Amino acid sequence: MIRKPVRLTLALLAVLALVALPAATKAQGSKGTLKIATQSPLSGGQAALGEGIKLGAQLAIEKFKGGLEKAGFKVDLVPFDDQAKPDVGVANAKNIIADKNILAVIGHLNSGVAIPSSEVYKEVNLAMISPANTNPTVTDRGYMNVNRVCGRDDVQGAVGSEFAHSTLKAKTAYIVHDKTTYGQGVAEFFKADAEKKGIKILGFEGTEEKSNFDPILTPVKAKGPGLIYFGGIYDQAAPFFKQASEKGIKARFLGPDGMDSSDLVKIAGKAVVGMYYTTAAGPVTVFPKAKEFSETFKKKFGKNPEPYAAEAYDATAIALKAIEAVAKSGKMPSREDVAVAIRKVKHGGITGEIEFDSKGDRKKALYFVMQVANADPQKWGDNKLVKQLTIAPPAVKK
Amino acid sequence: MDLQLLVDIFPQVVLDGIILGFMYALIALGYTMVYGVLEFINFAHSEIFIIGAFVGVELLLGLQSLGALDAVPWPLVLLLALLVGMAGSGLLAVTVERVAYRPLRSAPRLIPLISAIGVSFFLQDMIRLFESLWHNAFNLVYPTIDALNVRLELTRTIDVPVKSLVVILAALGMLGVLWVLVNRTKVGTAIRAVAEDQAAASLMGINVNRIISLTFLIGGAMGGAAGVLFGVQYGLINPYSGFIPGLKAFTAAVLGGIGNIPGAMLGGIVLGLLEAFAASYLSLLTGGAFGAEYKDIFAFSVLILILIFRPRGLLGEVVRGRA
């Protein structure tokens, strides 16, 4: 674990670096400084995941900046904290587009933040590569600057219901979601597909509640579903499942990739051991090429990479590759050129082969079903891979 | 609609509502006592409440790391956590009053209100800072005490965990003590005198500043106790956890008639019940058209209706004119 003082120092250094940049630029990069921004929650309840995105991007820049530096450019990372809030994300986005040297954005964690923020990036055709935003709308708008290296919720929801139906043999399900673009979205896809497969939906509830789930759980217990699906993020799902288990509810638990954080077991403990979650970000252990990344990450930051750190690493590598291709001419690359170049990149990343289709979805995205193995947060990486699927994104619906 | 189901869960919903209601009632006392004495809303009270929860969790985590959590009998542990939480929140409330409100006492009433909101933000981020320095964490989890999670099965559909009974008993106990304190002791008489008329009270030899500090101490301590109980009951706290319960407790205080102590208790329980009923029944009764997400809207609509027809709140008295 990095202690907070160290992080504070790092943050201070980053600020100093920004202030000192104009001076430094002249010394190191004769042709100018290229910047890549990250936008993810660095504070608040989802900071564990957001921090992972930033650190993943940082590692990628350190590893792949060589080519650009040889060409005479300096490459910098500018991390932004979107606090998982749409308004903060948009305000940051406005700052980002104002800085002409920022050529690509790696982010966000939350689809509900990514969608409005990417409207701002689009004004200047600034490329965004998302490591984690699974809501279909992110790419279905067909923007030339928006891409993602992860899967989609319409597929993920269906992967969940397929697993509930054929492996868990669930006959009935109760669905709760967090009313965000992401959580409600994936819950609705789960519901639609589950109904098609003949699973009876006993209830579909949205809640912003963070601590007291008793009144919601009372009808759940009375109805006795075979499965509870929580569409949302671990900071809300963990107390929900913990209280469900304390209330004596015997259903199986299932959730989307928002469950994928060691904080889930840190908060809920034994209650979630054995629960399943689907994810579009496989654990680093399933990717043979990611071993080195995982080791470097641990050595450098003193902790295991959180989910989406590897995706952020790949996304950043793609951005650098595209910038490098454009910068060959020796001039400062334009944002639009970079966005166009990103769509042409074929990248053998640590999470597999990555290539984008015409609307920015990954051509062959990976989906996983995982099972929580241990109540010890340190052993989150030991979670069992139950199922792995490679599915192409659905065709463009117009 | 499945009538049997509605009937089956009814007692459980009432129970959920009462537990939540007592929690609101304990927090609401802090708002209502301060209002009763100073006619001013202490918006920092929601943070004073959650700091009680943090002090409690620090104590429990400390005991846990010493290995004493399982060795010491749980009622003792809980009592200790409650006392420490009450002391922490109570002293903090007194400090806040001394630093942020007393210098503004003669200013127009809006000024201390703004100061209170500022204190609220300040405290939220102070907790965030300290917790990240000490634990590198945003969410803190209350250590599980297994004996508190034992469920007593009343019928097939209704059961109650020991910790909820503890919440109800502790809340009832504290409300009882407070009532005796305010209505049956010399100090209580002094508090009521200051509430009635500060100038006259000071002429009778009452130290007004001390009584106001005492009011903050008692209100803060009640909030701190509620914080510890909140943590024990729901398990997870973060620096912003206090805000929403604080707002609801303020609502409860207004609902019961702000400035009125039994009113705060009644308001808390009414609001808790409304919320529990809305969350459990809305989607069952409307076939899913209105879900649990409307629980706050429902609860606040009732509040608006009550205030339209009874602007003073359920037990409120006519507000005295002040010279």
Describe how the helices and strands are arranged:
The complex is a heterodimer of chains A (398) and B (323).
Chain A: H1 4-28, E1 33-40, H2 47-64, H3 66-70, E2 74-81, H4 86-98, E3 102-107, H5 111-123, E4 127-130, H6 137-140, E5 146-148, H7 153-167, E6 172-177, H8 181-196, E7 200-206, H9 214-223, E8 227-231, H10 234-246, E9 252-255, H11 263-268, E10 276-279, H12 290-301, H13 309-327, H14 335-344, E11 347-349, E12 352-354, E13 365-371, E14 384-391
Parallel strand pairs in A: 1-2, 1-3, 3-4, 4-5, 6-7, 6-8, 8-9, 9-10
Antiparallel strand pairs in A: 10-13, 11-12, 13-14
Helix pairs in contact in A: 2-13, 4-5, 7-8, 13-14
Chain B: H1 3-38, H2 45-66, H3 74-101, H4 110-135, E1 140-141, H5 146-149, E2 151-153, E3 159-161, H6 162-184, H7 186-196, H8 198-203, H9 208-234, E4 236-237, H10 243-256, H11 261-285, H12 295-309
Antiparallel strand pairs in B: 1-4, 2-3
The pair of chains with the biggest contact is: A-B, 40 and 46 residues
| Sequence stretches where pLDDT stays below 50 over 5 or more residues of chain A | 22-27
- The poorly predicted ranges of chain B are none
CATH topology of chain B: ABC transporter involved in vitamin B12 uptake, BtuC
Give the tags.
heterodimer; A: 398 residues; alpha/beta; Rossmann fold; five-stranded parallel beta sheet; 14 strands; 45% helix; elongated; B: 323 residues; mainly alpha; ABC transporter involved in vitamin B12 uptake, BtuC; two-stranded antiparallel sheet; two-stranded antiparallel ribbon; 12 helices; globular
Can you characterise this structure?
The complex is a heterodimer of chains A (398) and B (323). Chain A is of the alpha/beta class. Chain A is 45% helix and 19% strand. In chain A, helix 2 packs parallel to helix 13 (309-327) and helix 4 (86-98) runs parallel beside helix 5 (111-123). Chain A is elongated and about 70 Å long. The model of chain A is unreliable at 22-27 (pLDDT under 50). Chain B has twelve helices and four strands; from the N terminus they run H-H-H-H-E-H-E-E-H-H-H-H-E-H-H-H. Chain B has a single domain, classed as Orthogonal Bundle (ABC transporter involved in vitamin B12 uptake, BtuC), CATH 1.10.3470. In chain B, helix 2 runs antiparallel to helix 3, helix 7 packs across helix 9 and helix 11 crosses helix 12 (295-309). With 323 residues, chain B is mainly alpha-helical. Chain B has helices spanning 3-38, 45-66, 74-101, 110-135, 146-149, 162-184, 186-196, 198-203, 208-234, 243-256, 261-285, 295-309, and strands at 140-141, 151-153, 159-161, 236-237. Chains A and B meet through strand 7, helix 9, helix 10 and helix 11 of A and helix 1, helix 4, helix 9, strand 4 and helix 11 of B.
